[in-house]
Amino acid sequence: MKINEILKMTSEERRRKLEELRQELVKLKLQAKTGLLKDTARVRNVKRDIARILTAMKIEESRHEK
Fold first, then answer.
1. Could you report the per-residue pLDDT of 8-58, keeping only the tens digit for each?
2. Phi and psi at residue 35, in whole multiples of 5°?
3. Cα angle 61-22-15, degrees, rounded to a multiple of 5
4. Most Cβ neighbours (<10 Å): which of 7, 27, 52, 63?
5. Is pTM beyond 0.85 here?
6. Please, are residues 11 and 60 in contact by the beta-carbon 8 Å criterion?
7. Long-range contacts: 57-66, Cβ < 8 Å, 24+?
8. DSSP code at position 9
9. What is the three-state SS of 13-61?
């Protein structure tokens, strides 16, 4: 997911996507612990997407403060 895509989302869409990604990350971590995870890079990509969404939320928050 690219930052431009995230910035185009509404704040509600961002919150929903963030919650989905956090749930997915929990599932992926569980799969990794049990040895069932095939695509180990997916954990890293989900973490990065979470960070991008949080960054976009901070950017939006700072714009509203001005």
1. 999 999 999 999 999 999 999 999 999 999 999 999 999 999 999 999 999
2. 80, 15
3. 35
4. 52
5. yes
6. yes
7. 57/11, 57/14, 57/18, 59/7, 60/7, 60/11
8. S
9. HHHHHHHHHHHHHHHHHHHHHHCCCCCCHHHHHHHHHHHHHHHHHHHHH
Four-residue CA torsion sign, 63, 55, 14, 9: positive
Q: Copy the structure tokens of residue 5.
A: 């895509």
Region of 24 on the Ramachandran plot (φ > 0 left; ψ -120 to 50 alpha; else beta): alpha
The CA distance from 30 to 63, in Å, is 37
Tokens linked to 55: 């960054």
Q: Using alpha carbons only, give the angle 65, 6, 55 rounded to the nearest 5 degrees.
A: 50
Amino acid 51 reads: A
